[in-house]
Specification:
Radius of gyration: 16 Å
Strand order of the largest sheet: 3-4-2-1-5-6
CATH superfamily: NAD(P)-binding Rossmann-like Domain
CATH architecture: 3-Layer(aba) Sandwich
CATH class: Alpha Beta
Order of helices and strands: HHEHEEEEHEH
Number of strands: 6
Number of domains: 1
Helix content: 40-55%
Number of helices: 5
Oligomer: single chain
Length: 138
């Protein structure tokens, strides 16, 4: 018989993964490594940020003067929200009607697979990049 994980343990693991990524992000910044450094390796000049929560807002702040243009946020709970720090917030189904971006940065650390499945299921062919992968690659 397969043992199921305790929901509290799953929640704890998800928080721990987010904490570890945030810690690494801060360590990178202390060493002078910025998120924008990652994008110097790729031909991405315009991006959308998937997730207008805490990590998405922190990412927007870091990218503000980087030369990388954030066109819009994509958020599942965008209903009733129109913008964050002057950047439009849209629902995923609205992507085809917006300006094409070079990449979508997925900020929900634990939900990258779910988000990319959602996007590909809608026929979205814009490359998706995990914030977690960026943090650990720079």
């Amino acid at each position: 018989m397969e043992k199921t994980k305790d929901p509290d343990m799953i929640k704890h693991e998800r928080h721990w993964e987010c904490y570890a990524a945030m810690k690494r992000w801060l360590q990178n910044r202390n060493e002078g490594k910025l998120i924008s450094d990652y994008f110097e390796k790729y031909p991405y000049r315009t991006v959308a940020i998937y997730g207008a929560g805490d990590l998405g807002r922190l990412l927007l702040f870091e990218l503000k003067d980087s030369g990388l243009k954030v066109e819009y946020f994509i958020d599942r709970s965008a209903e009733g929200r129109h913008e964050e720090q002057g950047i439009e917030i849209i629902m995923a189904h609205e992507i085809p009607s917006r300006e094409r971006v070079d990449a979508i940065i997925v900020t929900p650390i634990n939900d990258y697979s779910e988000v990319t499945s959602e996007l590909s299921g809608m026929g979205c062919d814009i490359p998706a990049v995990s914030l977690r992968d960026i943090i650990y690659e720079i």
